[in-house]
Structures are given as C-alpha cells and as structure tokens.
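Hi U.,

Before I forget, here's the chain from the pilot set. I'm dumping it here mostly so it's searchable later in email.
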Amino acid sequence: MYEAIDRYVFSLIEQSSPEYTAWNIERARDGVPTNWNYIDGCMITALLAMADISGDERYFDFARHFIDAFVGEDGSIRTFRPERHTLDDINEGRVLFPLYARTGVDKYRLGAQTLKRALDDQPRTAEGSFWHKQIYPNQVWLDGIYMAMPFLALYEKHFGHGDYADVVRQVRTVREHMRDGVTGLYYHGYDASRSAFWADPVTGLSKSFWLRSIGWFAVALADLTELLPEGEDRNVMQDILADLTASVWNYHDPETSMYYQVPDRPGEAGNYLESSGSAMLAYAMLKGARLGALEPAWADRGQATFDGIGRRYLSFEDGQLNLGGICLVAGLGPEDNRRRDGTYAYYISEPVVRNDAKGVAPFVLCYTEVKRRQS
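Structure:
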C-alpha cells in the first residue's frame, strides 16, 4: 500500500500548478482561481514533510515553486487580503519558515512578517483570543488554533523573542471553555458574546462535536509540542493532547480505528466514518508518541487508524489511487447562512468527496509519521 501512496502523492503534484491544484476540490467546484489559502497551505506543509522524510527533492522543488508564485521579493503576498482578518489565511505562512531556513532567501522572512503584522491587527475577544474571522465577531473555532498558533510559535522561534505566552494563553482558553466535561471532547465553536444564532445563550458553545475541528486542534497540539521549548509551556500542550487523545479514543470504530463525522454518535442515521479528522487524530497520536508527549502505545493506535483509512477509503480506478470519505467543508454561520447551525443534522448534510486536500494533506502528513516510525 505504501508504494501506491507514494505514487498517489506524486501524481497529485504532477497534475498541479500555482494556477490550478488537483487537490482543492472546493475551489474547482466553484470555478475560482487558486489563491493564498489554508487548503493549499495544508498540502504544501505535507509535501515539505514528504521531502524531509523521503529525501526526494521533487517535493521541495514543487513547494518552493508554488509559494514563489505568491510571495513577492518585498514580502507581499498575492491575493492575501489582511482586511478580511481571517485566521485561515495565516496557515499557509507556516511553510515560509522551512523555505527560509533551507534557502536563506529573504522574501520568505519578509512574507512571514507580512502575516505577523496581520495577526497583530487581528480582532480579539475580551479574553484575548483571536476572532476566527472578521465576519465571525467574538467567535473562537477549534480550526483557528491550527490556522494561527503554529505560525505564531514558529515566528517567535525564528524571528521573535521566544515569547510563547500568547499561544499558550489562547490554547488554555479553548481548554477552559470548549472542552465538554462529560466526554472530554471539544465543541467546534465558542461565541464569547453569546450572540451568534448557533451559540448556547449560557455557555456560548455550538451544539455538536465535529470530528475535523477536533482533528485540527489535535494536530495543533502535536505541532506545538514539537515547537515549544522544554518547560511549562510545552507541558501544557502535552497534557491537553494526552487528555484529548484518551477522550477521543473512547469513540473509535473497533473495526477500522477511525472516527465518525459526529464522533460521539456512532451508528446514528447518516453518520459516517470520516477520513480527514481520522487522519488528523492519527497524526497527532503518532507524532505525540514519537516526541514522548504520549505513551508509546499511542503510536500503535495512530497506525491502526491510518491503516483503517487505507482499507476503508483508498481505492483504485483506472490505475489512479483515490482517497474518499472526506467532508468537503463545514462551518458555523455567518448570520445569513443559518443552515450552518452546528447541529448533528447539519454536519452530516455536507458533501462527502474524494481527493480534497482537507483530507489528502492530513493523510499524507500522517503517512510521513508512519514512515518516520519505520525508518
């Protein structure tokens, strides 16, 4: 299976360019040209990890060529609109740090500064957490922790003063407000103002758990465990990751070790085993075990989930490997889109697709952890 995955990943970059990517199904569906976005950012992050673990320079070369199409010599970023104040647009910036470290080309450092200035201007809740987007005032989404916090930690590590207090504070705020005390799972969204139509008027929380949002949070915790120096800050990330993985494992599917789109309601009508969130959790377990943040047995559990995704959703068609079972997109609101209300019925209603980067990129990232384990 692993050789087929290698061929699959490389076939995706052979079909892609800065103008069109074979993995961004959402933009292809809407007929929108490629821009600076978190979906491509996830995939480029995965390709750089593939380059690192495999030593195949073709992955790095594609990643650099792709990013060069957006980042100017002065650090400006084509199509990036800071006035939108969306954390999603910060995520792709994390690839600038390995590109700068590898090449020394200054535009990557300047590009990171462009995004850091945008984060400095990002609106915050009264508690100091970033709004997820300008159009979602006072809202904190689990997704946003992954979109912004690893970038912020990388910036502090490479170009700042090593002050991770803001990162740790925002993760702790999520732990305080968004963790369910009964299941140990995390709700998708939290409205600090309690005014969003989807928010509980008392807690500010959304109505249901969504697997991929929990997966984003788990990946962020694993990445931050690697980025933060030894000490109390790293310990906070490790402890939250250990608690989350132990909690979510209670809901794994015994046959595949995968997780459901709405993880706490397996077997209910319309619910399904979902690839992207399962791959994210597997990645966090494998990486957490590799870093010593989790007990070694968690690597076996992450491996079981990865293999379960392969058995369930990898298929051949006309000689092409395909990854299925991917929720295309889900969110909360805004006000003029009340279908996205955070209910069980909503989450199971979103399209399920194959070969979209929101599933492919986590699967490839997880694959790099599998390969590290074997090396």
